[in-house]
Every structure is written in structure tokens, then in C-alpha cells.
């Protein structure tokens, strides 16, 4: 069957989440500068990056299909925690998250006949983590390319004491908000 949308992301997690809700899609990865602007608020940052991804994809994909993009960031004390650069950076991030509650902002951008956006904000509380656990977790390879140096759907699920919000949003694509945006474009999940 032909795709309903273009997913402007190389993230296998986002693709799997779309498959989970039955949205047929084709992946077109785009490369943009994801550095935060000076003094940029976390919600504005994820919304801007998601919109820039969908726009960059629109410029290279001429299929005419709606384009979906997303961006997810881990926020602690009002600061964006990006992806870890190395073991030391992961230790620093996970040590800061240890025993604390942080937020995960996940923005979705959909470009069709118009541009729509949505934002999901979730709260995640980590149990206290030991230095040895953090190093062992890094050595699994799982946190290497993840915002905040963890994957909620993987081994880090054992770190999470509680969560309020969107599990799929913490993974990288909030499905509730995504389904609402797709409906705006006439793509329904359920008949």
C-alpha cells in the first residue's frame, strides 16, 4: 500500500510508533542545525526544530504527501539536556536526573495544505542512580543517541519511578497529538 505521509526523521522509534497506530509512511531524513538559540525557551526550541525539519523535508520531497516531523528534549531546571557526546557527558546528565523529576517536551509539526503544530509535555521521575549503574547503562549503547541520555522504552525503564504525561511523547512522538494533527489533514487512525 502507498504511504499516507512522509516522516521527516531517521528515528526508528518514530517510525515504529507510526506503524503501531497504522499510519503508512515513507521516511525521508533531513539534516538541520539543532542547536538551541541563545535564551530560547524549551517549548519554543522543540517547536522550532520540529517545524524546521518538516520545512527542510518539504523542500526536498516533491511527492505532495503531508510531512510529519518531531523533536523531543529532556528539560531539567529549565535547561535543555541534549544527546550525550561521550561517557562523561552521559554520567553528568544521568547524575543530574538521578532522584529528580524532569520534563520531556515533544513537539510535532505536520505540513500539508497548511502547517499544524502540537506540543506534549510529560514529567518523569527517576529513582536514585549509582555511578556504577550509569556507567553500565552507557556501555549497553542505548543512551548514546538519546535526549537526556536515556530511552524510556529500553533498559532505562527500570530507572523511572513515576511518569505523568505521554509515554510515546517521551519516546519521541506523542501519538495523541500526532493523531489529532493527522485528523486535521484528513488522515484518521480508526475508521
From TrEMBL:
One GO CC term on file? cytoplasm
Q: What is its EC number?
A: 3.6.1.9
Site Important for substrate specificity — annotated at 13, 72, 153
Q: Which UniProt keywords apply?
A: Cytoplasm, Hydrolase, Nucleotide metabolism
Where found, per UniProt? Cytoplasm
Which of the seven top EC classes does this enzyme belong to? hydrolase
Cofactors: a divalent metal cation
A single GO BP annotation from the record?
nucleotide metabolic process
Reactions catalysed, semicolon-separated, are: dTTP + H2O = dTMP + diphosphate + H(+); UTP + H2O = UMP + diphosphate + H(+)
Top-level taxon of the source organism: Bacteria
> What are the protein's GO molecular function terms?
dTTP diphosphatase activity; UTP diphosphatase activity
Q: Which InterPro entries match?
A: ITPase-like_fam, Maf-like
Which residues does the Swiss-Prot or TrEMBL record annotate as the active site? 71
Q: Which PANTHER family match?
A: BIFUNCTIONAL DTTP/UTP PYROPHOSPHATASE/METHYLTRANSFERASE PROTEIN-RELATED, BIFUNCTIONAL DTTP_UTP PYROPHOSPHATASE_METHYLTRANSFERASE PROTEIN-RELATED
Q: What does this protein's UniProt record list under function?
A: Nucleoside triphosphate pyrophosphatase that hydrolyzes dTTP and UTP. May have a dual role in cell division arrest and in preventing the incorporation of modified nucleotides into cellular nucleic acids.
Q: Which family does it belong to?
A: Belongs to the Maf family. YhdE subfamily.
Q: What is this protein called?
A: dTTP/UTP pyrophosphatase
Amino acid at each position: 500500500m502507498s504511504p499516507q505521509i512522509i516522516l521527516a526523521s531517521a528515528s526508528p522509534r518514530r517510525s515504529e510508533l507510526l506503524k503501531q497506530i497504522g499510519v503508512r509512511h515513507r521516511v525521508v531524513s533531513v539534516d538541520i542545525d539543532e542547536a538551541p538559540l541563545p535564551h530560547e525557551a524549551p517549548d519554543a526550541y522543540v517547536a522550532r526544530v520540529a517545524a524546521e525539519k518538516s520545512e527542510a523535508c518539504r523542500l526536498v520531497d516533491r511527492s505532495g504527501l503531508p510531512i510529519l516531523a518531531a523533536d523531543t528534549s529532556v528539560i531539567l531546571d529549565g535547561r535543555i539536556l541534549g544527546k550525550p557526546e561521550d561517557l562523561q557527558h552521559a554520567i553528568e546528565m544521568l547524575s543530574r536526573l538521578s532522584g529528580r523529576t524532569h520534563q520531556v517536551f515533544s513537539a510535532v509539526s505536520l505540513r500539508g495544505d497548511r502547517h499544524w503544530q502540537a506540543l506534549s509535555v510529560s514529567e518523569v521521575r527517576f529513582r536514585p542512580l549509582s555511578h556504577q549503574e550509569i556507567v553500565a547503562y552507557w556501555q549497553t549503547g542505548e543512551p548514546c543517541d538519546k535526549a537526556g541520555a536515556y530511552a524510556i522504552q529500553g533498559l532505562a525503564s527500570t530507572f523511572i519511578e513515576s511518569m505523568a504525561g505521554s509515554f510515546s511523547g517521551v519516546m519521541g512522538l506523542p501519538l495523541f497529538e500526532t493523531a489529532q494533527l493527522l485528523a486535521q489533514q484528513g488522515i484518521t487512525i480508526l475508521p
